[in-house]
Amino acid sequence: MRHLRTRAPLAVAAATALAPLLVLSASPAAAADCLPRAGTFLPGEWVGYGYRDLYSPLDGLYVDASEEGAFELTVDEGGAASGTIEITGGGNSASSEVIGASTGAWTLAADLMGSASSVLVQGTMTFAVDGVVDIGGDDVVGFDYGFDRDISGQFAAIEVDCTMAYGTFDGVGVGDGLAWVASRSGDPATAAEFTDRFDRVLAHAQALLLEEEPDPTEVDLATRQLIALNDLIGQASACGEAPEGRALGSPAASFARETLGAVVERFLETARDAGAYRTDAVIRTTSLALQAGLFDEPECGADPTALDYRERLVTLLHDVLAARLDLISQDDEPMEYAVIVAALHQFGMNDLLEKLS
Questions:
Q1: In a 10 Å sphere around its CB, with 0-12 CB exposed, 13-18 middle and 19+ buried, how is residue 345 labelled?
Q2: What is the mean pLDDT of the chain?
Q3: I need a labelling partner for 39 at 20 to 30 A (CA). Which of 81, 165, 203, 229 fits?
Q4: Span 108-125, mean pLDDT?
Q5: Residues sharing a CB contact under 8 Å with residue 294, sequence separation 6 or more, in sequence order
Q6: Do residues 117 and 40 lie in contact, with contact meaning Cβ atoms separated by under 8 Å?
Q7: Quick one: which of 104, 90, 87 has its CA closest to 4?
């Protein structure tokens, strides 16, 4: 088989670093049962790599190809993520129905950004195909074409412990089903760094909550920062890397969770009243916030206000989705319509589903 290897040294470095790590345990740190998010990368440098062979599930179609991906991700003390990713693949295919064969190759080169629990991917995929086909009468025709496609997706770890992680590239837009394993290096955030970022994120959020009509962009930023911070509090606490006064269960951590709830309320009110934000972003942000804030897991230390927040946030999301359903139809906006219907099922909004039927 012809294996197409990534041209940059990133994949080589990743494979070398991870060679002894392919026996990754299926469970994270023992204390992770109550983590807000199972897949939060801790501060430090993460190197990930994955490889797979590709086959055709269809009778009569022969595929001899492979695909691999590698990434380098830096997470700072506040949970902000940055880095690069490459996914490459290619191989040969032929069909019993057609006399001929083709060769294809694809490459994604992209930047990583976002947070430790939701890594955003932005880049370009290049796709190229060439081959020959017999069109009858022993006439063989060659073909050669290619295209570029902008990629804007995201991925997250399925499970993370203090030094290792695994997941898939599902959601990136290329490489769905390609699994990866990653290792962490570098020093963890110091107590002073963690505390400084903690205080700055909360100060920004509190200032916004005092404004009558804050800038929607600033509300979105504060919401994403608080989701990342609450995710980080949970994972860092499980690994003993959160300062005692900021660890899960501390008054400061509880205040961070309550501030998250208040800011997400403002985020959803802005979406409802001003029509701000894309619908898929509203749904995803609400889902991440509910998980990051432990708003539905009182057994993990959340007080009764956690359930109060959940009820208010889901009610606001209901109002946003109801208003947007009134503005679109399945025929005119099929993609957004499908996104909304999926969310109605996810959050059990049966009254809106009944209206659709």
A1: exposed
A2: 81
A3: 203
A4: 91
A5: 34, 36, 230, 234, 257, 300, 301, 302, 306
A6: yes
A7: 90
Contact 127, 104 (CB under 8 A): yes
**What token pair was written down for 231?**
């995710």
Structure-token pair, residue 330? 């399945």
Closest among 114, 63, 115, 108 to 89, alpha carbons compared: 108
Which residue, among 127, 149, 144, 151, has the nearest Cα to 67 in the 3D structure?
Answer: 127
**pLDDT band of 14, cuts 50, 70, 90:** very low
pLDDT at 279: 92
- Nearest 5°: phi and psi at 192? -65, -40
Only one residue has tokens 């902000």, namely 80
Task: Average the pLDDT over 138-166 and give the result.
Answer: 86
Q: Indicate whether 187 pLDDT > 90.
A: no
Residue with the two structure tokens 């501060």: 43
